[in-house]
Amino acid sequence: MKPARTATAQRPRSATVLVAIGASAGGPSALAEVLGGLPAGFAAAVVVIQHVDEQFSAGLAEWLDQHCALPVRLARDGELPLPGSVLVAGTNDHLVMSAGGCLLYTPEPKEAVYRPSVDAFFESASRHWPGAVVGVLLTGMGRDGARGLRALREGGHHTIAQDEASSAVYGMPKAAALLDAAVEILPLDGIAPRLARTCAARA
User: Fold this and answer.
1) Is residue 149 part of a domain?
2) What CATH number is associated with residue 88?
3) DSSP 57-111
4) Which residues are catalytic?
5) Which domain holds residue 49?
6) Whole-prediction pTM value?
7) What is the number of domains present in the chain?
8) Per the domain annotation, does 136 fall within a domain?
9) CB of 160 closer than 8 Å to CB of 186
């Protein structure tokens, strides 16, 4: 694998690590396993982009909350991700990060087939989150998230893609592997322990 390029020296850093997770087909159960494996004292902020219609997003967040020691709820427009919480994209617009690390919903890019777009969030996080980011791309159909995961890796952030054997649909993680976007390719049951170690080291 190609070594990740280091982040630009002038980028301001905060102590808060952001874990950005993207998923599609097969994602809810994969998310439940990953989030359920994170300890109650997990110090990073977590944002989840799951391809799901907004009429089901609240139910998804409530269901994930039952499987996770961390509080899980829908992301609100204009809020800042905080350590020890999980925010889930909740509308048919894209969830992106603005300057300063605040979350915003936007219809752009209108041409994106999958909504909310994992690429849109990953790419915005690589530009605007002031601290370290760990990008995770889970099971899903298509290619959404692969380009964004590569942007995170090229920005010096740690990136993880789910392996083929544990993926319900090996589309999005495969696309990331083909782009050499993932620093690590891990089985589903290895992702939460890796996140715990990586975030503890980067906090």
Assistant:
1) yes
2) 3.40.50.180
3) HHHHHHHHHHT-SS-EEE--TT----TT-EEE--SSSEEEE-TTS-EEEE--STT
4) 24, 51, 144
5) 18-202
6) 0.92
7) 1
8) yes
9) yes
